[in-house]
Amino acid sequence: MKIGELGEFGLISRIASGLADGNGVITGIGDDAAVTALSPGMQLLTSTDMLVEDVHFRRAWHDPYRLGRKSLAVSISDIAAMGGIPRWALLSLAVPPETPLEFLDAFTRGFLAMAAEHGVALIGGDTCSSRAGLTISVTIMGEQEPENIIRRSGAHPDDDIWVTGTLGDAALGLELLEKGKLPSPMTVEEQERLISRLLDPSPRSAAGRALAEAGLVSAMIDVSDGLLADFGHIAELSALGGTIHLDALPLSPDFRTVLPSHPSSHPDLALSGGEDYELAFTAPAANREKIVQLMKKCGIDARPVGIVTASPEVTVLLADGSTYAPQNKGYNHFT
Amino acid sequence: MKIGELGEFGLISRIASGLADGNGVITGIGDDAAVTALSPGMQLLTSTDMLVEDVHFRRAWHDPYRLGRKSLAVSISDIAAMGGIPRWALLSLAVPPETPLEFLDAFTRGFLAMAAEHGVALIGGDTCSSRAGLTISVTIMGEQEPENIIRRSGAHPDDDIWVTGTLGDAALGLELLEKGKLPSPMTVEEQERLISRLLDPSPRSAAGRALAEAGLVSAMIDVSDGLLADFGHIAELSALGGTIHLDALPLSPDFRTVLPSHPSSHPDLALSGGEDYELAFTAPAANREKIVQLMKKCGIDARPVGIVTASPEVTVLLADGSTYAPQNKGYNHFT
Fold first, then answer.
1. Taking CB atoms and an 8 Å cutoff, what residues of chain B touch A135?
2. Quick check: A137 and B132 CB within 8 A?
3. How many domains does chain A have?
4. 185-214 of A, contacting B, C-beta below 8 A
5. Any idea what the CATH number is for the domain that residue A74 is in?
6. Cis peptide leading into A185, omega within 30 of 0?
7. Min CA distance, B106 vs chain A (Å)?
8. Measured between CB atoms, does A23 come within 8 Å of chain B?
9. pLDDT digits over B60-79, tens only?
10. Which residues in chain A come in under a pLDDT of 70?
11. Pairing between strand A121-129 and A85-95?
C-alpha cells in the first residue's frame, strides 16, 4: 500500500495510534491545537529542525527506522544543550505519494522509540504530499526552571571548554558511506559503529539536564556543525575566545583504528565534522572533578579540551604549542 | 543576490533582524532553543502547518509578501479555533538555492506583518537548502486559561451551528486563478477580492478568543477544508450529527455576483470549498443574541447555519426541506 492510497486522515490516525497518554498532555493529536501544561515554575524551551531528503539524509543510506529516531534526536539535543527536560514534539511530513507504507511505519516506530527513551510525547503535526522527496519538520518543546537554563552566552574567561563523548565519528561514518567501506585495518563492525553515530545519534539529554541542575556549567551548545563552529557560537555570544588543544580531543577506539590509513583527515574530522550531537560546554576549573563524577553517573565521558580566553579569537593548538589552521570551519547548508 | 550566496547564518540573521522584544520572550532566535514564559495560570496551545510549493501554493499566483502572511495566518487560525491567544511562532524554510533574496525579504516582511497584527513574536526556526521547491513549516504557540479552551468535542444536541464571515470565497478565488479571470458580470476588483480571500486570509483570532472567554460556545474549529468536512470533525468528536441549511450559508456580495454565471458550483463551493479560515462553532440557542453582539464588537459577522443533532449523520437541507447531496466532501492532500 502506498501513502497516496491511505490519504491524509488515514496517515494521521496511523501515526497517532502509536501514542501514549500522560506527560502533561491535556489534549494531544486530533484538535486544532494540542493543549499541554508546563510544570509549576518552569519556562518553556522550544526548537525546530527541518530534514530534507538528499540534503540532510539519503534514503539509500538511511533506513526509515533510524531516520525516524534521528529526526527527533537532533531536536532533543537542542533541549539538552539548554539544560532542559524534553517534553513534547510535533512532527510534520511532506511525503511523495508513491512512498511505501512500510517506510512510514518504520519511520514512525523509530520516532516513537526515540520519544519514549527521552520521555517525549508526540502531540501533533501535519502531513501533506510532496512533489519531490521527503521533508521532515520536527518541533520540540521542553521545560526547565529559569535559574537552570544554560545559554551560549554565559562563558567566562579561564573557564574550561568541555566536550562529552567522542568527536568526529559521525563525520568519519559519512566518509565511509561516501567512499564505500574501507579495506583493513577496519573490521565491518568498527565501520558500522561509526556509520551508526551518523545515522542514529544519541542526544545527551540526561547529561545536559544534570549539568544544568547541578549548577556546574556556564555555557552550553550541542555539537551539530563541528566543535570549532559550535564553540565559536559560545565564544561569539559570550564576547570571548578560546584555545582548543587538538591532542585533547576525545577520539573513539574505532576512530583511532582508522587513523593510520587516514592520517591527514583526523584533525578536521574531529574539529569540524558535524552531527556528533555531543555537548560542548564551559565551566569553572574548580568544578572539574564534580563534572567528571556527574557525567560518570550519566554513563558518558566528558573531558576538558581547552580554555576560554578574554581575547576573542578561537585558536587550535598542536601538541608542540604551534597553531593549527583548520581547513574547514563547519557545515553550511547552502554551500 | 541569491540565497545560496547569503548562506545559512546570513539568512537567519536577516530574518531575526526584523524582530521585536517582549511578549513573554526571554531568549529568542540565536540559542539552541528559545525560552519563553507562559502567563500565570495558562495552558500551552501548539499547532504546526506545512506549506509545500505546487501543493499548497504556486509562486506564479502567490506573491511572496502574501505567502509570508498566509504561512502564519493558517496557524494563527488554529489557535483562534481553540479560543486561544497566539503568542510565539517558529518558521522553518527549505529554500532552493537559486531563490532571489528579494523573494525571501518580501516573504519575511509579510510573515512579520501578520505576526505584528496578531501579537505573535517569531522566536526561532530553521533554514536549509531544498532540491526542489520551497517548503514552509510554521509552528505556533498560544495560551489560554484551562476553562476557556474550546475543543471540537464539546457540542451538545440542539446547539446552533454558527459560522463567521462568508464561505466559498477562497474556493471561488482558486477557480478564478485556475480558469483565468471571468468576463462580465464580475469586475476586476470583485475578482481580486475573491482571490485575496485565498491568498491572504484573515484568521479570526480576536473573535475566537472573545467567544471562548465569554463562555458562549461549546465547540469550535476553523474552516480550512470546507464547512461540511470541518463541522464533520466537530460532529465526530462530539459523537453527534447536524443539519446544515444550505440557504443559510453566508455568501459575500462578490460571491453572489458570480452566482448567475456559475449556478451549479455554488453549493459545493460554499459547503466544501477550503481555505476560508473562518470559524465554525456550536452554541446553545439561548446565547444567540449575545454572540451576534460580541461578533459585532470584533468587527465580523456570524450567523447560525444549522442545528446539532443527536443522530450522528450530517445532513444538508435545501430551502424546500429536501436533502442536498454534496459532490465533494472536502480537500484531501493525497488525492
1. 50, 52, 94, 130, 135, 137
2. no
3. 2
4. none
5. 3.30.1330.10
6. yes
7. 20
8. no
9. 999 999 999 999 999 999 99
10. 1, 3-22, 181-184, 262-265, 328-335
11. parallel
Average predicted confidence (pLDDT) for chain A: 91
Q: What is the CA radius of gyration of chain B?
A: 20
Are B128 and A333 inside 8 Å of each other by CB? yes
Q: For the segment A282-316, what is each residue's pLDDT rounded down to a tens digit?
A: 999 999 999 999 999 999 999 999 999 999 999 99
Q: Is A66 helix (H, G, I), strand (E, B) or coil?
A: helix
Cell numbers for A251, please give them: 577520539
Report the distance separating Cα B83 and Cα B16, nearest Å: 29
Rounded to whole angstroms, the Cα distance separating B324 from B268 reads 10
Nearest to B31 by CA among A45, A175, A98: A45
Element holding B282 (H helix, E strand): strand B278-283
d(CA B254, CA B48) in angstroms, rounded, equals: 32
Question: Does residue A156 sit in the same domain as residue A120?
Answer: no
Contact A83, A204 (CB under 8 A): no
Distance CA B171, CA B327 (A): 14
pLDDT at A14: 59
Select from A119, A148, A177 the last residue of a domain: A148
| Nearest Cα residue to B123 out of A47, A49, A80 | A47
A155 CB within 8 Å of a chain B CB: no
Query: What's the confidence (pLDDT) of residue B90?
Result: 97
Show residues of chain A in contact with B128, CB under 8 Å. 50, 52, 55-56, 333
Model confidence band, residue B16 (pLDDT cutoffs 50, 70, 90): low
DSSP B323: E
Q: Is B48 part of the contact surface with chain A (CB cutoff 8 Å)?
A: yes
The domain in which residue A218 lies consists of 152-324
Q: Which residue has the cell 486544532?
A: A32
**A289 and A163 in one domain?**
yes
Q: At B239, which amino acid appears?
A: A
- Kindly give the interhelix angle for A64-81 and A101-117, rounded to the nearest 10 degrees: 30
Q: How far is A189 from chain B (nearest CA, A)?
A: 33
Interchain proximity A124–B8, CB inside 8 Å? no
- Is B98's Cβ below 8 Å from some Cβ in A? no
Grouping H, G, I as helix, E, B as strand and the rest as coil, residue A10 is helix
pLDDT computed for residue B11 by the predictor: 60
Extract the C-alpha cell encoding A87. Answer: 517534553
The interface predicted TM-score (ipTM) is 0.91
Instruction: Give me the residue label for grid cell 454558527.
Output: B162
Examine the domain organization and report whether B266 and B124 are in the same domain.
no
Q: CB-based contacts of A235: which residues, under 8 Å, 6+ apart?
A: A155, A241, A242, A308, A312, A314
The DSSP result for B129-145, as a single string, is: E-SSS-EEEEEEEEEE-
**Interchain contact B31–A (C-beta under 8 A):** yes
A126 touches chain B (CB under 8 A): yes
What SS3 state is found at A268?
A: helix
Distance CA A254, CA A317 (A): 24
Q: Are B102 and B13 in contact (CB under 8 A)?
A: no
How many Å apart are CA A201 and CA A203, to the nearest integer? 6
Nearest to B166 by CA among B196, B197, B192: B197
Q: Are residues B77 and B171 in the same domain?
A: no
Does the pLDDT of residue B214 top 70, yes or no? yes
- Taking an 8 Å cut-off on Cβ atoms, the answer to whether A133 and B131 are in contact is yes
